[in-house]
Amino acid sequence: MDTETYMALGLHRALGDTDPTRLVNGRANREIQQALSTPGDRQYHPCPEGSPAEDIPRGRVASHRDWAGARIFPGTIRDVRIYTPPGFDPAGPPPALIVFNDGSWYLDRDGPVRAAAVLDSLIHAGEAPPTVAVFVMPGKTEQNPQQRSFEYDSVTGLYARFLLEDLLPFVEAEIGCALTADPAWRTVCGISSGGICAFTTAWHRPDAFGRVISHCGSFTAIRGGHHYPFLIRSTERKPIRVWMQSGAADADILFGSWPLANQAVAGSLEFAGYDCKFVFGEGGHSLAHGGAVFADTLRWLWRPAG
User: Fold this and answer.
1) How many angstroms separate the CA atoms of 264 and 61, rounded?
2) What is the residue extent of each domain of the chain?
3) What are the φ and ψ backbone dihedral angles of 275, each rounded to 5 degrees?
4) What is the pTM for the complete model shown?
5) If DSSP codes are grouped into helix, strand and coil, which group holds residue 2?
6) Alpha carbons 213 and 198: distance in angstroms, whole number
7) pLDDT of residue 142
8) How far is CA 40 from the centre of its chain?
9) Cβ–Cβ contacts within 10 Å for residue 38, how many?
């Protein structure tokens, strides 16, 4: 399809580029709100590792509000929080890395994931290596208070560059040491647009990020993510391991069906011979199910090869 036809059909538009109240066949993109909390989510509860016993050592979280060090996304500010594990020694071996897009949602101590507490539990049990976690929010500017879709849904390598050239050098300076260079111990995690962003980051830079967690990933017609099933099938396999989750009540709007889109991506990964696990439940477009199995997700993702 030529570019003129592609744009004339409106295929270049992002979710925020159109009126969410616009009706087509009696349906609208605003219906995504109905998938954010569904009856199917009620069966899911934070995993036990998210509530560690009082005697388990806890890591430290340093907060950097309105961080303005992004050159790849110039003029933006964003909140960044950096978790270092209990007893962290910068002079020791380089720590593993996990980056959480929409980081505040994953860090929330009373939320469905409670990622820092889960890391404390797994590290204490010897089921995870010393790991630095970076909880980063999307950028915003004075003119654009929300550019989440541009940063997360775009299927370019820009976000990978942002991590490698801007954010992670800042993190290394803050923690006083280099992070591991082994992509098998460098993970990107996210939900919805942040989920497809995690996959896109590893897709473009598998040499730097070898592990992916996608909760309810937006592999739909927002900024081109619906093309991934074909790309995965028709491209030489990349050295990445992927864990995915969606649910029967996930979003179903004009831009596509999240349950079907995630099934298509998971099926393509299996077809192409990837090391991939797809967990499909009964919940909606939320972290409820992902949080319930988050400790097991990390165990699977970080298991030895073979």
Assistant:
1) 37
2) 33-301
3) -80, 100
4) 0.95
5) coil
6) 7
7) 87
8) 22
9) 18
CB 62 within 8 A of CB 152: no
Pairing state of beta strands 241-247 and 275-281? parallel
The matching CATH number, chosen from 3.40.30.10, 3.40.605.10, 3.40.50.300, 3.40.50.1820, for 33-301 is 3.40.50.1820
Q: Which amino acid is at 196?
A: I
pLDDT digits (tens, 9 = 90+) for 113-167: 999 999 999 999 999 999 999 999 999 998 888 899 999 999 999 999 999 999 9
Dist CA 296 CA 286 (whole Å): 18
Determine contact, residues 79/166, Cβ cutoff 8 Å.
no
* Paired tokens of 126: 């010897």
Please give the DSSP secondary-structure letter assigned to residue 173.
H
In one-letter notation, the amino acid at residue 48 is P
Look up tokens 């979280």; give the residue. Answer: 61
> Among 217, 212, 210, which residue's Cα sits nearest to residue 262?
217
Beta bridge mates, 64: 80
